[in-house]
Amino acid sequence: MSWRLSPRAALALGALLLLAAVVAGSASGAYPITPVQLLRLLGEAITGTPGASAESLVFFNIRLPRLLLGIATGAGLGLSGALMQGLFRNPLADPGLVGVSGGAALAAAAVIVASNYWWPGLPHTLGSWSLVLMAFAGGLTVTTLIYALAQSRGATRMGLMLLAGIAVNALANAGLGWLSFLATDEQLRNLQFWLLGSLGGARWSAVALVGSIVAVAVAWGLTLARPLNAIALGEAQAALLGVPVERVKRRAVLACALAVGAVTATTGIVGFVGLIAPHWVRLVVGPDHRVVLPGAALLGAALVLAADAVARTAVQPAELPLGVLTAFIGAPMFLAMLRRFRGSA
Questions:
Q1: Coil, helix or strand at residue 28
Q2: CB hemisphere CA count around 311 (13 angstroms)
Q3: Whole-model pTM?
Q4: Phi and psi based region of residue 135 (left: phi greater than 0; alpha: psi -120 to 50; beta: remaining)
Q5: For FRET with 323, which of 237, 285, 306, 307 sits at 20 to 30 Å CA-CA?
Q6: Largest CA distance in the chain
Q7: Average model confidence (pLDDT) across the chain
Q8: Long-range contacts of range 161-164, CB-CB < 8 Å, 24 or more positions apart?
Q9: Does residue 345 carry a pLDDT above 60?
C-alpha cells in the first residue's frame, strides 16, 4: 500500500467504524430497530426515563448487553493479537499461540462431558457459571504451562514458546477429540455450539465480568507500546536502551491470557480476529505499537459486531455461529498474507 494515514486519522477512522458497527448491530435482528428509535432509546436512557415499549425491552435487555459483550470480545482479541505479533515480531502470530483457546476448549469439554463423573456437584456449586469459570481457569493454566516450558536460563525464549504452544495445543485438541468421542448426542451438540462461538449467551452479569477483565488487560497492554517498539529492533538492542525485556514479555503474555481467557470462556472460540485486525491497522499506519495496539482493539470490536450482525440476520430466525463467520473472513485474509510474504521472501 503506497499511502499511510496519520495516527490520529487512523484512530478516528477506527472509532467511526466501531460506531457504524454499533448502529448496524443495534438495528439488526429479528426485531429491527431504526436509527430514529435508537436515538430515542438512548435519550430515554440518558434522562433516566426508559419506556416500556417493545423496542425498549428488546434493546436494553437483549441487544445492548450483546453489543457490549461484542465490543469487549473484539477489543480483547484485537489487542491480544497485536501484543503477540509484537512480541514474536511476526505478523502471522495469533493469541492462540499461547494456548488460551486450546486450554479453554479442553476445560469446557471436560465440564460439558465429564463433570458428572469428576465433580457431580459442580453445577450446583457454581450454577450457570461453571462452564465459564472452568474454561477461564483452563485457558490460564495452559498458558502458565506454556510460559514455564519456554523458560531457559532465566529468560523467556519466544521460539520455545512457539513450539510449546504448538505441542500443548495439539495435546488439548487430542483431549477435546477424546471427550467428543465419549460425549452423548446432547453433550456433543452443546460442545459443538460452544466451540463455534456465539454472543447469544450475553447477560449483564457476563458483560460486567468480561468487560472488567478485558478493560484491565487492554489498559495494561497499551502501556507496553513503547517497549514493544524497542523490542522490534531486537531484544539485545532493546535491553541496551534500558527496556526490561523479560518483564515486558511476562506482562504481554499475562494481558493476552486475561483478555482471551475471559472472552473465550464466555463466547467460545472466535478465531482470526486477533490475526487480521492488527495486520489491517499496520497496513494503514505502519508498525508503531502506540497506534497499532489501540487501533487493533477498535477494529477488532468493529469486526466482531459486524460479523454478529450478519450472523443474526443472514438465516433468520436461526443464527449462524459467530466463529464460522470470522473464519470465513479471516482464512482468506490469512492466505493472502501468506501469498504476500511468499512474494517478498
A1: coil
A2: 25
A3: 0.88
A4: alpha
A5: 285
A6: 64
A7: 85
A8: 161/97, 161/98, 162/88, 162/97
A9: no
**Separation CA 141–CA 48 (nearest Å):** 43
* Residue 76 · residue 322 · CB < 8 Å: no
DSSP 71-139: HHHHHHHHHHHHHHHHHHT-TT--GGGGTHHHHHHHHHHIIIIIHHHH-TTHHHHHGGGHHHHHHHHHH
Helix/strand/coil percentages in the chain, nearest 5: 80, 0, 20
Question: What's the rounded Cα separation, in Å, for the pair 48 and 123?
Answer: 37
The more confident residue out of 223 and 331 is 223
Q: Dump the DSSP string for 257-300.
A: HHHHHHHHHHH----SHHHHHHHHHHHHH-S-HHHHHHHHHHHH
Nearest to 284 by CA among 86, 2, 91, 4: 4
- In this predicted model, what pLDDT tens digit does every residue of 81-99 receive, in sequence order? 999 999 888 887 888 777 7
Confidence of residue 125 (pLDDT cuts 50, 70, 90): low
| 186 vs 97: CA distance, rounded Å | 31
Closest CA to 273 of 73, 56, 91, 36: 73
C-alpha cell at 170: 495439539
Render pLDDT for 220-256 as a digit per residue (tens, 0 to 9).
999 999 999 999 988 888 999 899 998 999 899 889 9
Separation of CA 296 from chain center: 11
Alpha-carbon dihedral angle through residues 165, 168, 170, 175, given to the nearest 10 degrees: -150
Distance of CA 308 to the CA centre of its chain: 14
Secondary structure of residue 151 in the 3-state scheme: strand
Q: Residue 40: count other Cβ atoms within 10 Å of its Cβ.
A: 16
Q: How far apart are CA 294 and CA 94, in angstroms?
A: 17
Q: Which three cell numbers stand for residue 338?
A: 501468506
- Determine the Cα–Cα distance for residues 74 and 72; give it in Å rounded to an integer: 6
Question: Which pLDDT tens digit goes with each residue over 188-214?
Answer: 888 888 888 889 878 888 899 899 999
Specify the 3-state DSSP secondary structure of 159: helix
